[in-house]
Amino acid sequence: MNLSQLNEMQRKAVRTTEGPVLLLAGAGSGKTRVLTYRIAYLIESCGVDPWNILAITFTNKAAAEMRDRVDAAAGQQAGRVWVSTFHSACVRILRAYGSRIGYTSSFSIYDTDDQKACLREVCKRLEIDTKKLNEKTILREMSRAKDELMGPEEYAAAAGSDFRLKQIAGVYTEYENQLKKNNAMDFDDLICKTIELFSREPEVLESYQDRFRYIMVDEYQDTNTSQFRLISLLAGRYRNICVVGDDDQSIYRFRGANIYNILNFEKAYPGAAVIRLEQNYRSTQTILDAANAVIANNTERKPKKLWTENAKGDKVHLTVYADGRAEAGGVASQIQSLVRDGWTYNDIAILYRTNAQSRALEERFVVEGIPYRIFGGVNFYARREIKDVLAYLKAIDNPDDEQSVRRIINVPRRGIGDVTLDKISRYAAAGGSGLTFWAALKKAREIPGISARTAGKTEEFVSMMEFLADFASAHSVRDTVDMVVERSGYLIAAAENETKEEVESRKENLNELMTKAAAFDEENSPASLSGFLQEVSLVADIDQLDESAPTIAMMTLHSAKGLEFPCIFITGMEEGLFPSYMSIVSDDPKAVEEERRLCYVGITRAQKELFLSAAKCRMIRGETQYNKISRFLKEIPRELLALDDRSDSWDDPDLYERAAARQNRLAKQQEREEMTIGKRTGSRLLKLYGTPLKEPYHSSSVGVSFEKRLQDYRETQKPAASSRVKPEAAWTSGPAFGKDPSELTAFRKAADGPGYGTGDRVCHARFGEGTVKAVEDTPRDYMVTVDFDEAGTRKMMAGFAKLRKI
DNA sequence: GCCGCCAGTATTTTT
DNA sequence: TACTGGCGGC
Question: Taken in order A55, A61, A67, A69, is the CA torsion positive or negative?
Fold first, then answer.
């Protein structure tokens, strides 16, 4: 096989196929390329059956990219290589063998919300006061325990006599029981239940060990203990395990990633080959120098130094703004000038520490007409209507899933409230592990304390669900989704209580879900509902990044890992924001190191141009904060930086410090005054640093009040009134609607029919022209069946469809 | 059982 | 600022 396109180290990595290999791949060093070549090399030059190769990534996106590249490099055979994320690999194994540890193949997967809901139930049952023992703490502890492969018994044993820990152990035990009863697993379970399966059923493990003779793991620095264990188990027989990672890019320790997996790989696998990829092909020399300079301040890392043969390139652009609003404006104008220079919008990405920072930028971009897309924030699958409909589907597919049944039993309102649900829940719990919530629900009439009237309602619900389950067993996933929406009356109820826009956006999202269902139907035959739900549960927003869209990309620094763009902006480089307040005040001095790695990840996303910015003050959570510039900026050698002329009074490099000192004196004085009159002083942050900048820079002086000057200043900065468009408007592109009830009248059912009848030709905004096949009279609206010329036959509510007779 | 108000709370989050 | 959950009134 021709490896001439690779450098020496890369070739070595490709050719070292046998035994354990640790590949330390710096940012932009072509690790995906190496992995792809390695797979192709194994197949072509070593005669390995692709069936025997497993490549594990963390994100679906990375898996898809790897899939494409392997397909391209290794030809027809490549399809048989198993390329997958940790979680979807486990789902696949558990679907096949989960019955051995007591799950059916249609087990539900619980996301954080489901987990929380379930936990709340458990706490209620155990009469645990969640004010004293906070839910988040419990979730964090349980997740940590699972990451470390501690079951409830081990956890209880380790708790010893500590009251809180013992309490948590009790909750953990009960939570596990509940999930088991629900035939459900949370994300952590997917990994540990697979391990449990392997240890309980050695022949299952052996069959996989035998299959996966060559295993590769990407982003190894982010694996946690259980993932490491899983991989070790799989590699147990052949020990051909190649892990690829960069300890400098470990940014998920807060979620349990265990950096020692990479730092101690050589101990776990004595004799492992260690290969370093240090040549960077991505960034300019200058950008790389900046990144190296920053990361050099960390102590806990494997020593390495990235180098490049790339051109020196432009200096790193640094701009310091007066406030967050000015920053948004400055970034916008920098983007416009990049576009004038010939870059396209999709060459550009903006990275920030917290999702909340996207707001200010967004508002500005709407005004300036800069097309943008935001990744992260609310995941598509986390949107309410999507979660609701998915809960219907889960409940249909796996009625034992109490969480999903509870979620939708009263959505839309069916007069089955919490009190009834609690009675059922208690009855089920009293009936032992054999009696699930669903089984109890079916017997509601026998439960003491539930009235005949209420029982009638639950029976109606049960029969609806049974109908839907029947329907699902005989129809495609797409049609099932359609039927669920219709039969549940979901949208009809939404239309009554919500604004036009809200309903429109819900409809749009549901259409999107149907598109995804249809795609799933096409790709899988037979397409099972369980399969669809399990796939959908493992999808994150960043997976949908569409590189071809002519928009700038906006995302958190975390989401940017693994991506690259010619032009990168990192905004909000201020102490307290980045590095975050939490990391600064943390008892763990290493917390800032994780932030620094995050900074390193951010900088190394850039290929050609890097723009860094800070604002002297910004609104955070409705409160204006004055922060110092980030220590990370100071770690970049001055000669690599070019101060942008948009900067707010930065003619002298030390000005900021001197100004800060002056402000500090003023602030302290003010603080003393305030203390004497007993007023609350500054935010916690200000106290922490003792250097509050109480006023904007060039406000010279005495006389006019700070507030007044700040206000004047804001007035001059304020863009046209139209900038105050709500961000959502950017998505829906249309005038914003208020909650004026008259706007809902459009949805009220017309008394004399929808204005068209069977056989009429009609036009729909999205689906085009079609012929009306049927008009059905339902209590709230007319249900119209239209055979569209292009889009096929669809059933819709007349009130929403807004069909025009032609 | 439902609805609305108020108070508390707020990093990052591949799955 | 913006969302969520808990609680009290109907």
Answer: negative
Averages of pLDDT over runs of 10 residues in chain A (806 residues) are 91 96 94 94 94 93 89 86 95 96 94 87 81 82 91 91 87 92 94 96 96 96 94 95 94 88 91 95 96 92 89 95 92 95 94 92 90 80 85 94 91 87 87 85 90 91 95 94 91 77 80 88 89 85 62 92 94 93 85 94 97 92 86 94 77 47 51 40 28 28 30 32 24 25 33 79 76 73 74 63 74
Span CA (A21) to C1' (B15), Å: 25
Catalytic residue check, A219: yes
Nearest-angstrom CA–CA distance, A626 and A694: 7
Q: Which of A270, A278, A268 has the alpha carbon at shortest distance from A302?
A: A278
The residue with tokens 């960043």 is A542
- Backbone Cα Rg of chain A: 29
Structure tokens at A651: 């003619």
Instruction: Quote the pLDDT of residue A440.
Output: 93
Cα–Cα distance for residue pair A437/A444, rounded to 1 Å: 10
A605 catalytic, yes or no? Answer: yes
Of chain A residues 379-438, which have a beta carbon within 7 Å of strand B?
A: 379, 410, 413-421
C1 C1': nearest CA residue: A622
Instruction: Report the predicted TM-score, pTM, of the whole model to 2 decimal places.
Output: 0.78
Q: Which residue is nearest to nucleotide B13 (CA to C1')?
A: A255
**Sheet hosting strand A804-805, strand order edge to edge:** A792-797, A782-788, A768-777, A761-764, A804-805
Supply A663's token pair: 């402000």
Is A320 within 8 Å of A656 (Cβ atoms)? yes
Q: Look up A446 and say whether it is catalytic.
A: no
Query: Strand A82-85 vs strand A804-805: parallel, antiparallel, or unpaired?
Result: unpaired
Q: Which nucleotide is nearest to A555 (CA to C1')?
A: B12
> Can you give the distance from the CA of residue A748 to the C1' of nucleotide B12 in angstroms?
45
Decide if A696 contacts A706 (C-beta within 8 A).
no
A783 CB-near residues (< 8 Å, 6+ apart): A486, A775, A776, A777, A795, A796, A797, A798
Centre a 10 Å sphere on the Cβ of residue A746 and count the other Cβ atoms it contains. Answer: 11
Say which DSSP state A397 is in. Answer: H
Residues 326-365, chain A, CB closer than 7 Å to nucleic strand B: 353-356
**CA A415 → CA A89, A400, A425, A616, distances in Å?**
41, 22, 17, 53
* Catalytic choice (A36, A57, A178, A249): A249
Active-site annotation holder among A61, A67, A394, A605: A605
Residue A266, CB, strand B, below 7 Å: no
User: Which of A16, A17, A32, A130 is an active site residue?
Assistant: A32
pLDDT value for A691: 30
d(CA A561, CA A10): 21
A430-448 burial, b at 16+ Cβ within 10 Å, e below that, comes to eeeeeebbbebbbbbeebe
Protein-to-nucleotide distance from the CA of A281 to the C1' of B13, whole angstroms:
29
Residue type, A248: D
Separation of A124 CA and C5 C1' (Å) = 15
| Peptide bond preceding A526 in cis form (omega within 30 of 0) | yes
Q: What is the pLDDT of residue A163?
A: 83
Distance, in Å, from the CA atom of A189 to the CA atom of A196, rounded to the nearest integer, reads: 10
User: A32 catalytic, yes or no?
Assistant: yes
Q: What is the DSSP string of A735-773?
A: ------GGGGGGGSPPTT-SS--TT-EEEETTTEEEEEE
**Structure-block tokens of residue A635:** 């770690």
- For B1, nearest residue by CA–C1' is A417
Distance A625 CA to B10 C1' (A): 15
User: How high is the pLDDT of residue A784?
Assistant: 76
